[in-house]
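Help needed: design a sequence for this.
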């Protein structure tokens, strides 16, 4: 899954099938005549797993297959993918597939045990205080990825997450120094612009009897900065971002800058205000006080930056000094 806006991706992906293959009635008793596999690799509780059959020695086109799940026949017919319904987390479904070809039966078995593992991406990037959403994956920044594992044994008892072993992989490369018992989180560098980064984890019980995993994809998106009016009585008016034009109606107005999804690995973004092209102030707020008695206009620019290449800008056309209008009754 992609995690751009978080959107929060919460991604719930679940644990791999536990495969125990056994060959019965193979011609000549040598090797396995076909392979039996299940997908997805990490099935979720109460989902379906799809069985697939592959053989280099049997004529599967002219063969038939019988599939049983926990002793109950669920399919009989031509050799094709077969869906198996799974139960709660930790429950085991024992599958037996018997292929009949040329008057001879060949059997394979496997066990599928769905488990629950979720990956949560936490971008290390800026967002305004009390912002209800999640920031984006930043350019030139980092993302903390947390694994929430809920491994259960066949009886339904959950294992303590801190006692599980976590093996992290980033873009297909195992990260040994971030893996180990109780290492539920990893810090990952943001991918380059227009690229993706895949983060995967395998989670295993200490005795190796239960194993699962999950993966997610990270994609960076453009950062942004917004201007808001800071009302002396109501505070920052987050419900209305300023754009295009803004009229200063009183003796002064205070504006607030809110940078979204700029990396904060090395601290808060640098915010600079420019009035008519000249640097006027740095910091998250600026107070504008028109002088003189006539009407006027000015341009206000805002630049938020983090690092050498990650910036976001906003522009506003200011007007001030206009007299309030009157209605027909002079009110």
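Sure. Designed sequence:
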């Amino acid at each position: 899954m992609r995690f751009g806006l978080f959107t929060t991706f919460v991604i719930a992906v679940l644990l791999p099938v536990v495969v125990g293959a056994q060959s019965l009635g193979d011609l000549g008793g040598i090797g396995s005549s076909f392979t039996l596999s299940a997908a997805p690799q990490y099935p979720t509780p109460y989902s379906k797993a799809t069985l697939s059959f592959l053989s280099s020695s049997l004529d599967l086109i002219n063969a038939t297959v019988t599939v049983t799940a926990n002793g109950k026949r669920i399919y009989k017919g031509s050799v094709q993918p077969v869906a198996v319904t799974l139960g709660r987390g930790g429950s085991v479904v024992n599958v037996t597939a018997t292929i009949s070809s040329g008057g001879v039966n060949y059997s394979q078995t496997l066990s599928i045990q769905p488990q629950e593992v979720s990956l949560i991406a936490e971008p290390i990037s800026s967002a305004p205080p009390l912002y209800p959403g999640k920031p984006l994956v930043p350019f030139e920044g980092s993302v903390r990825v947390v694994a929430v594992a809920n491994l259960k044994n066949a009886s339904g008892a959950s294992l303590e997450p801190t006692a599980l072993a976590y093996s992290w992989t980033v873009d297909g490369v195992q990260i040994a120094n971030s893996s180990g018992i109780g290492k539920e989180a990893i810090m990952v560098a943001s991918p380059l612009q227009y690229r993706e980064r895949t983060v995967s984890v395998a989670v295993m019980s200490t005795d190796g009897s239960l194993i699962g995993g999950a993966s997610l994809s990270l994609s960076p998106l453009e950062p942004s900065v917004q201007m808001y009016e800071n009302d002396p009585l109501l505070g920052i008016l987050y419900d209305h971002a300023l754009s295009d034009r803004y009229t200063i109606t009183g003796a002064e107005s205070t504006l607030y800058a809110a940078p979204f999804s700029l990396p904060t690995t090395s601290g808060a973004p640098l915010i600079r205000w420019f009035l008519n092209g000249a640097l006027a102030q740095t910091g998250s707020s600026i107070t504008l006080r028109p002088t003189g008695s006539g009407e006027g206009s000015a341009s206000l620019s805002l630049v938020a930056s983090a690092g050498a290449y990650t910036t976001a800008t906003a522009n506003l056309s200011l007007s001030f000094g206009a007299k309030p209008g009157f209605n027909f009754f002079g009110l």
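The first strand starts at residue 2 and ends at 3.
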